[in-house]
Write a structure and sequence with these properties.
22% strand; two-stranded antiparallel sheet
């Protein structure tokens, strides 16, 4: 099982389950997050330091 956790809101935003630990497990979880999110900014939080 692979769970994608939003560390700001401490909520699960995507998950996937398979019987192996191959890379498709994580990619499937990320695909679910991208499909359910309306904007990329909801997923990625980029901090810029000046």
């Amino acid at each position: 099982m692979c769970i994608i956790l939003d560390t700001f809101s401490i909520s699960i935003i995507g998950w996937s389950m398979q019987d192996n630990l191959k890379r498709e497990l994580g990619l499937n979880s990320l695909n679910i997050v991208f499909q359910e999110s309306s904007e990329i900014n909801d997923i990625l939080n980029i901090d810029e330091m000046i």
